[in-house]
Amino acid sequence: MAESTNRDTPEQAEFRQHCREWLTTNVPALPDFKPVNNGAEVATDEHLAYYIAWQKSAYDAGLVGCDYPSEYGGGGRTRCQSVANQEMLRAETPIFPGIIGLGMAAPTIFFHGSEDLKKRLLPKLLRGDELWCQGFSEPGAGSDLASVQTFAERKADNKWVINGHKVWTSTAQFATWMILLARNDKSDKYNGLTYFVVPIKSELGKSVTVRPLIKITGETGFNEEIFEGLVVDDSYRLDDVGKGWTVAMTTLAHERGAGPLTTPTSGGQGKSDAKEKQPGSDTNEFPLLKLAKNCARNGKPAIDDPVIRDKVMDMMIRQVGIKQNRRLRSVAGLADRQRLTLQDKLLGTEYLQDAAALALEIAGAGGTLSQFDVDAPDGGKWPQAYLSSFGGTIAAGTSEIQRNILGERILGLDKSK
Ligand SMILES: Cc1cc2nc3c(=O)[nH]c(=O)nc-3n(C[C@H](O)[C@H](O)[C@H](O)COP(=O)(O)OP(=O)(O)OC[C@H]3O[C@@H](n4cnc5c(N)ncnc54)[C@H](O)[C@@H]3O)c2cc1C
Questions:
Q1: Residue 394 Cα, ligand 1 centroid: separation in angstroms?
Q2: Could you report the per-residue pLDDT of 329-368, keeping only the tens digit for each?
Q3: Which of helix, strand or coil describes residue 194?
Q4: Rg, C-alpha atoms of the chain
Q5: Residue numbers annotated as active site
Q6: Residue 163's closest CA among 211, 118, 198, 201?
Q7: pLDDT at position 34, please?
Q8: Ligand 1 center–CA 397 separation, angstroms
Q9: Residue nearest to atom 13 of ligand 1 (CA)
């Protein structure tokens, strides 16, 4: 990764040096299983143990939570998380398993939690001692998130009793805590919401049932949770009663990469190894171009088909466009910081879906072969990529919702309703 370091502040430069030195000897060896690409793909106890160990060791070295104050378990630094992220990606490290905690729960607790909650919860979250999940979506509330019906009833003794049903909850099978958006007032859609951090396992969370849901890919990772009278203390509330919508916006801004705190991110494990395992291959070659050269169509390489060639070129142009769009992140003075991240999410996830669909078209009948078939083009990664791509265009707000937000908030178009 060609990251420019000449714009580093003195603190960032010193910290970058520390990261590089530490990473030189502390990136773990490849695991026995195929490395996963993100925390939501962590599926087994073996995966979990490996990735948790990595998060803990990176945290202990100061590479996770660098910009959080030290009294909350952070590094007490300024704008250093992005430096750590760049260096971890450059060093091709494993991923962090605690993505919901690091990316959503931590900033939300930091901006809206009490001093006591910040001190109790953030150190364990950052270190990966406790994993988190996000309890927003419900069977009747996804895009229209403010329709959540999970009900939090306030009792006289400073307790809340929570009943309801959450769904599509990534990583809940491993999580001990959930960030929860609940309704406390049925008469006011937006101001009748309150935000909590709640235990969903152990003795404290025993009245919550976590059930796995199987994805279209056959993988686990999604769950639903049934709340049957979970009792939590009022101290588990974030911000004021009725301010849940405002707090949820902090979570969503960080989920979309548009929040003020940078999410600790690592990954890229095995990238160079994978390239070395294909001697003679041009590692910089555009994957769809390579595939079209290797797959046959009417007795010739598929790339000789002018329609295929046109489609591959179209995808190459789109990919360059997305990369150029990302470069705009460094341009100062953009009117709305959400714009680039929303655009990036929309363009990136739709690109991946279209690229996978084109790969299957190029592979023809070979595209029906799975990763377990030795004859499958590109190791059978495309059927899986195509099925997985739908999650990308739905999670964190569907493509239609991204377009609505871009249209209404960024372009200033009339509201649809
Ligand atoms: C991979 C993945 C991970 C997820 N992880 C979590 C998680 O950890 N926690 C969590 O709480 N949720 C999670 N979700 C749920 C996700 O937030 C919702 O699926 C998403 O917000 C859409 O909601 P829905 O599924 O209820 O669809 P709906 O909101 O019912 O939408 C159905 C269709 O209608 C369209 N639509 C709806 N409203 C409008 C509108 N106003 N304008 C135009 N079109 C519209 C949508 O775009 C969609 O095509 C995850 C989802 C996925 C796919």
A1: 5
A2: 655 555 666 788 888 999 999 999 999 999 999 999 999 9
A3: strand
A4: 23
A5: 255
A6: 198
A7: 87
A8: 6
A9: 168
